[in-house]
């Protein structure tokens, strides 16, 4: 595979959507993709901005990817089987002009690992030397990298979950306040019956949404403090990060994979609940604004009608000689 050291522009339907640097800073097995913030706003393009499509644009197979990251989020290549490869990339923060995706490719000997007589690549299977508890056999460095990449991926998901939790707590306060909201005397007097009914109906949905929102917040907090997670954190600190051998590394890798899947499912569920409750909150606020607006307009009409009637009666009295 020959890489040019100059940045290249990638296009989508004739439009430039990203730039790619190969071998950045002399790294022989790395790529950097840069996507401008504005491209995430182009209709139809956001769904196409996936790591898999970026790799296709430069003729890189997913199986050749060791790992990739953007911001604080890291993902392991998993020999091309990681479902995150096909998921749309998140837009960068509003104050960031672009999103950078750093891709680490496998070294040539990794990508071309021969198959064993049993049909498995070197380093695969239960007797894999890369998972041996002692010594530094062939492939052990890659095993440490995979353990580290898994842990960083978990930390990235947890960071996103914590940001979501903070948003959910703010939304919880907002929904609880909407339940306590009452109409003023003037609003009660001039509000349309249909508007009041619509507002009450929207508020009823809040009663069903609050338990789910509280549960999602509780699960996000509990997940970070669970005993299993704390054990893996200690293991990372004492063994994985300093690369000090320990027994049953293959089992620990499985535990990290399971923890990562749990975090992904929990994050997806939390986002679903958040979006649902956000929609309910918007409906409540919208119904209230409509009610208040119509009530104010109705009050003005009544005052104007009352004023016109008063003027008319005064004129009648004048004509009748009463005044």
Notes on the structure:
This protein has 7 helices and 6 strands. The protein has 2 domains: 1-109, Immunoglobulin-like, CATH 2.60.40; 150-319. The chain has helices at residues 51-57, 108-111, 140-180, 185-190, 193-225, 227-240, 249-319, and strands spanning 8-12, 15-22, 30-36, 65-70, 73-76, 98-105. The chain is an alpha+beta fold and 323 residues long. The protein has a 6-stranded antiparallel beta sheet with strand order 1-2-3-6-4-5. 54% of the residues lie in helices and 12% in strands.
Question: What's this model, at a glance?
Answer:
By secondary structure, the protein is of the alpha+beta class. The protein has helices at residues 51-57, 108-111, 140-180, 185-190, 193-225, 227-240, 249-319, and strands at 8-12, 15-22, 30-36, 65-70, 73-76, 98-105. The protein folds into 2 domains: 1-109, Immunoglobulin-like; 150-319.
Kindly name the structural category.
alpha+beta
Distance between the termini: 104 Å
Percent in strands: 5-15%
> What is the radius of gyration?
30 Å
Supply the number of helical segments. 7
Strand tally: 6
Question: How would the blueprint of this fold be written?
Answer:
Blueprint: E1 8-12, E2 15-22, E3 30-36, H1 51-57, E4 65-70, E5 73-76, E6 98-105, H2 108-111, H3 140-180, H4 185-190, H5 193-225, H6 227-240, H7 249-319
Helix pairs in contact: 3-5, 3-7, 5-7
